[in-house]
Design a protein that fits this description.
It contains 1 helix and 59 strands. The chain is extended. Strand 37 and strand 38 form a beta hairpin.
């Protein structure tokens, strides 16, 4: 449209070049569909959009011009719905605004201002003109800083042009001659428009019809934009009330505020939406039995003073007639009616079960959300992406799951709510978790028994299908691919059938397995071995899977899945990360900084013989977990040996061979040292493991030799050292101070004569 408009203006200008001209800007402010505008039968503006404007353009002066307004996509000026004869004076500057409603109480019209200007009266000022174009709004004043800028402007009228410093202003709209009543306020930043002019035009319907009222700005260049509203000062507070007392005598209650009945027969596990209440004054909240006559029947009264502009959640908790915590109204003063981020669901938490101990609440795949959460505490809002979450409730400090709850918040984006532990852990009504939304909706979370499961295909066989209890779980599951962690039922028998790809029914399975998974556990299942071969096909199951690590770490698990490879050690940057792992075995996790590592494969207990080295860049996987799995045949059969990585999100990739490997050097491969040249090797044991502040090193020396102990990290760096001097033959225990080392995995390295040993240990404080 812009190219067509520019060409048209060029042609009109050429045609009128010999005539005297005026300068005109046209603004479309009629809440009607797009229009075409003709001048003396020639199309001037095609498909002219509501709340847009032209720049100032040259038009003929001192001649009659018939302005015709037609619906968009009109064929000619004959389609006009209205015609307006105008004449502009030579050298004049005009603003023409199309406003009003076709067939409305304020009919469509062209409103002309004949004292316009394209430039302000000085380089540091901006010239501002106001036009009242809201058909149902009364006469108004526009003020700024308490000073009247535009006075007594009615619909269809322009103010005079005001030249003000080019700065940012708050424009207040008030009724004419009543500047103490501010109807609305807007931010108007004119600091960028020095030396130029703009038209502020009231647009839309003030009474709430569509389009809604908004002040817009048309710059002298034709650009338009709305002014942003200033939030109206809040007066009063907002309050949501929730009945969570499980006392049998308080199944229903009446609630009074300052003697007035607020809630009648208010039932257990019911809630109000947020309602407006006075702020800054004492509110006497009285709770009385249902069907009470007045606040004088109250069983308890609670005086509260709420702050202006805040949102509160008041939860009736505790017990009236049953032994235990007394009846009370617990107040949460950080209530929200909406999520802070429109794409998330914000959830606060309240422990409201009077006989339940302190609990930990964890989300599957995420970790602990709340730790040592006691009655009647509140926890501030958690921001949750729309999804389904499985929440495990455990006694504080314990891994035992009391119950698992399913929270599906996938349809609650932009909303806020509070989860409340409700009822008796050992009585009636029974314990559950309810979620109360800001509108008063109460949802009881269903319980669930589920496990988390990742499946890795490491059997060098054709693509397979995986069936579970007769339903196809994985279709055309390829070798060396993996699933993300998925949620599966726990506590029930799962019949897993493995069939060739493109199978049509569970009965096509070549092999099947019956497994029962424990609620709350995380599993890794590796399809391994050779169908019809040796070693045979099997599902190897690891029941201590993890989906997350500490923020800067990656949690690594190793699985030995190479059918013809012997027992191996896996070294990371020279340190033994996984020790003595046989075929079909899992190593257990190590947590290491998310970085790039040189991975070496050696025979078990012979770390000087490096079979192969690989580069593993895990720097991108902070806070996550991965499985490194040996795959293929070491002997050279097809497929060849490769270590692969399966990420917790299901991504898989092979580790590239480290082509620069030329042998141990520089102390990096500190475990790859010569053998003891015939000396009787020293034996080494570590206790306790995991350790806290001290490590007891049990040393059984087979020779009289100088001995040195050191703590080395996974990067091969020596962090602590202790020289023991010449150690006699025999057994002794040395206490090694671990100082201020952080939690994590380390190696205790012993040099005893020609013998060098290193054992991994954990620090867990």
């Amino acid at each position: 449209m812009r190219a067509k408009f520019t060409l048209l203006l060029t042609l009109i200008t050429m045609a009128w070049a010999a005539a005297q001209t005026a300068r005109v800007q046209i603004i479309h402010n009629s809440p009607t569909p797009n229009v075409d505008i003709y001048a003396n039968g020639a199309l001037l503006l095609d498909n002219f959009v509501f709340r847009t404007a032209t720049p100032y353009i040259d038009v003929p002066a001192n001649v009659n011009i018939d302005i015709a307004v037609a619906p968009a996509n009109s064929a000619s000026a004959l389609d006009a719905i209205a015609n307006f004869p105008v004449q502009f004076q030579a050298g004049g500057t005009y603003v023409v605004v199309a406003a009003g409603v076709v067939g409305g109480a304020q009919p469509f019209n062209l409103f002309v201002y004949d004292m316009a200007s394209e430039m302000a009266n000085s380089a540091n000022n901006v010239g501002v003109l106001f036009f009242h174009g809201s058909p149902d709004a009364p006469m108004v004043d526009i003020t700024t800083g308490g000073n009247v800028l535009f006075d007594n402007i009615a619909f269809g009228n322009f103010s005079s042009l005001a030249n003000v410093p080019a700065a940012s202003y708050q424009l207040d709209v008030t009724p004419a001659n009543d500047n103490s009543t501010i109807v609305a306020s807007y931010n108007a930043d004119f600091s960028f428009w020095k030396g130029r002019t703009a038209v502020v035009f009231a647009s839309g319907f003030f009474g709430g019809n569509n389009p809604a009222f908004e002040p817009w700005v048309a710059l002298s260049t034709g650009g338009t934009f709305p002014l942003s509203a200033v939030a109206t000062p809040v007066t009063g507070a907002k309050l949501q009330v929730i009945h969570n007392s499980p006392d049998p005598a308080a199944t229903e209650v009446d609630i009074y505020v300052n003697g007035n009945l607020l809630l009648d027969d208010f039932a257990f596990r019911k809630a109000t939406p947020f309602v407006d209440v006075p702020a800054g004054v004492t509110l006497n909240i009285a709770v009385a039995p249902a069907n009470s006559a007045s606040a004088a029947d109250a069983i308890a009264t609670f005086p509260v003073v709420l702050q202006d502009g805040k949102r509160y959640i008041a939860v009736a908790d505790g017990l009236v007639t049953v032994p235990g915590p007394g009846f009370n109204i617990e107040i949460f003063d950080m209530g929200q009616e909406q999520a802070m981020s429109p794409g998330n669901f914000d959830l606060a938490v309240h422990h409201g079960s009077p006989d339940a101990p302190a609990v930990d609440i964890a989300a599957r795949g995420i970790g602990n959300l709340l730790t040592d959460f006691t009655y009647p505490s509140f926890a501030n809002y958690l921001s949750l992406a729309p999804s389904t979450y499985y929440l495990d409730v455990k006694p504080a400090g314990s891994s035992a799951i009391v119950e698992t709850y399913e929270a599906n918040v996938s349809g609650l984006a932009g909303q806020a709510g509070i989860a409340i532990a409700s009822g008796f852990l050992g009585g009636t009504p029974g314990f559950t978790i309810i979620v109360v939304l800001a509108d008063g909706t109460v949802v009881e979370l269903p319980t669930a028994k589920i496990a988390r499961l990742q499946v890795i295909h490491n059997s060098p066989t054709p693509t397979v299908d995986v069936w579970v209890n007769g339903d196809k779980l994985l279709d055309d599951f390829a070798f060396r691919t993996a699933t993300p962690y998925i949620t599966v039922p726990a506590g029930v028998n799962l019949n897993l059938g493995i069939a060739l790809g493109n199978s049509t029914a569970a009965s096509d399975a070549l092999v099947d397995y019956d497994v029962t998974l424990d609620n709350g556990k995380t599993y890794i299942v590796v399809a391994n071995g050779i169908v019809g071969g040796n070693p045979g096909f099997n599902l190897e199951i690891f029941d201590q899977g993890r989906e997350r690590a500490a923020a800067g770490d990656v949690a690594l698990l190793f699985f030995h899945g190479s059918p013809d490879a012997p027992e191996v050690d896996i070294l990371a940057n020279g340190g033994v990360a996984f020790d003595d792992v046989n075929y079909a075995e899992f190593s257990g996790y190590v947590d290491v900084p998310a970085a790039s590592y040189q991975i070496a494969v050696t025979p078990a207990n012979d770390n000087s013989t490096v079979v192969a080295k690989y580069t593993a860049d895990l720097s991108f996987w902070k806070g996550r977990s991965a499985v490194v799995f040996a795959s293929g045949f070491l002997s050279g059969a097809n497929p060849g040996f490769e270590p692969w990585v399966a990420l917790d999100n299901g991504g898989t990739f092979p580790l590239p061979v480290d082509n620069n490997f030329t042998g141990g050097n520089g102390g990096v491969d500190f475990i790859q040292l010569p053998s003891n040249d015939g000396d009787i090797a020293a034996e080494l044991q570590l206790m306790p493991n995991p350790a806290t502040d001290w490590l007891n090193v049990l040393l059984n020396s087979g020779t009289e030799a100088r001995t040195r102990l050191s703590v080395v990290n996974l990067m091969g760096q020596t962090l602590l050292a202790q020289d023991l001097g010449v150690v006699q033959i025999g057994q002794q225990t040395i206490q090694f101070d671990l100082g201020n080392l952080q939690n994590g995995t380390y190696f205790l390295r012993m040099e005893n004569g020609n013998t060098v040993k290193a054992l991994p240990f954990l620090i867990a404080r």
